């Protein structure tokens, strides 16, 4: 009886599961911190945009605090890797990041909370708890000898080779598409046309008036619809391949980073002096830095140049799947699993909750924007008169829109494909969440309005003013 009471005492349980508790708490704090500082950076960027593209005193402070805080909490996630299995760290970190992002988005007035946020948070947290329980008891401590033994196994070598080859293949595919100038990473918005119609200032943006199609034009459009549908499907397939390539780079890099972190963490357990003299420590650090840069660059490119509402869910799901599989295969974490059925079910639960947290606000925003734009279009078509059309045709004869290459580069400067050093210093999850919060409404608006024809950006410059003399009636010849 005394032996049973000693085994079940709180002190014994705490000593037995101390490493697991540290792993879970550190990973959860890292996820919450990254979500908070990601929203702080989104708020700073929102204030900068409202101020004409320049930081205010408050937005600059928020940006600095967000960059520093996200870096600190990004390093904190490595603490969990030193004390617990990779699979547990990845799932807990992802399960804490997105609910925190949804909550702090409401706090910073980035977007309102929806029912999908509440349900997704509940599902995600439940899945994380179940995954922790089914993960089983903590395995043996990962020392240098243990790490070298598991990494040198043929299965581990084959798995790491597959990840490296997949990463290189995805990079080569993106480079080939970039060289052939077919990549969606290089695709800018539709070029401005010069149809000669006076632009309509609509909801703070310039729109081109749609001319009433004639019978011949309608027939031509009907004939061109199948070709346009084929081109649209081809472009969608190409965009999906591009997104998958970027997600493969980020997910494989993330998995290799976790394994490398286990390596230098094992070397540090020998002491700082012994670790600095260990070849394993320096090799692991170099591999960690290389894949860290690859993951950051991939995430930045994916958030800036791909469809963020497609990139974020696919990237999050692939990161979890590849990292968990790498931990189970390479580091032999499968030996501690209590129930494979429960582990698979809880993993699917976490993934479902994450998808709800990511895609829920975007769908609501898209439907809201679409309904409001349909109403405004109806009002606009009813108020259009023939006099307005004739007046617009006369005015536009004297108007020229400057669409030189320099102007286009200035218009799309915010979505440049070049990755700066300052962007690399910001943690990956923060970058993805900040761009997700920033682009939810913008991406949804662009999707719903893409069918309405080319747009004129706010920053388009007018190189000449309209000649108002054309509005005057012609002078009578009988004035002599």
UniProtKB/TrEMBL annotation:
One of its GO terms (cellular component) is membrane. Keywords: Membrane, Transmembrane, Transmembrane helix. Residues 215-231 have a biased composition (Basic and acidic residues). The keyword Membrane applies. It comes from the Eukaryota. Residues 372-389 have a biased composition (Acidic residues). Residues 209-231, 365-389 are annotated as: Disordered. The keyword NADP does not apply. The chain crosses the membrane at residues 20-41, 61-80, 86-104, 116-136, 156-175, 243-267, 279-301, 308-331, 343-362. It is found in: Membrane. Its main location: membrane. It is a multi-pass membrane protein. GO terms for molecular function: magnesium ion transmembrane transporter activity. This is Magnesium transporter.
